[in-house]
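REVIEWER CHECKLIST
Item 1: Sequence provided? yes
Item 2: Single chain? yes
Item 3: Sequence as submitted:
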Amino acid sequence: MVDNVKVINFLQDFGCAKLEHLQILFDDKKSSFKQILNSNMVSKRGDIFVHNTRTLNEKMLIALDILCVFKPVAKRYCPGSNPSIITFYTTENWKCNILVADKENQKGMVKFLNSKIEFMHNTDKLLVVFYDDTEVENIECEIPIYYIIYPKLEVIYDKKT
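Item 4: Structure as written out by the authors:
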């Protein structure tokens, strides 16, 4: 049985999560997590749980989709600092950052990745979510990148340095 306080703390940190995210991240595929609603700290919108001090964040939900895919190798994770949505550490102690491009401004994410931003120097891998593959050839980042197409969650580019 999952500790309700841990789930509520997770939602306070990340803001929101789908039921399936909670089931995967807390290793409890059968739970409906309805018991956390009794705390009056969490509300539910469809299958999405939202902490009452936070707002529903589409980029966070997308980043949580990616984290769930990488859950088998993620030993710990936390919300990232802008522009990273989530930072996680792998079982090999690699630091990975999940970034989500704006649907309307994928070129802006490419410009960001191509600039030598200080935050990226202590990152081992970037997992960058785009909505199509139109920008893949324009990325010239020195850090290995997993280019992920959403919503298929298909990795189409893995640049090795």
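Item 5: Key structural point noted by reviewer: Residues 120 and 143 are 8 Å apart (CA to CA).
Item 6: Recommendation: ____
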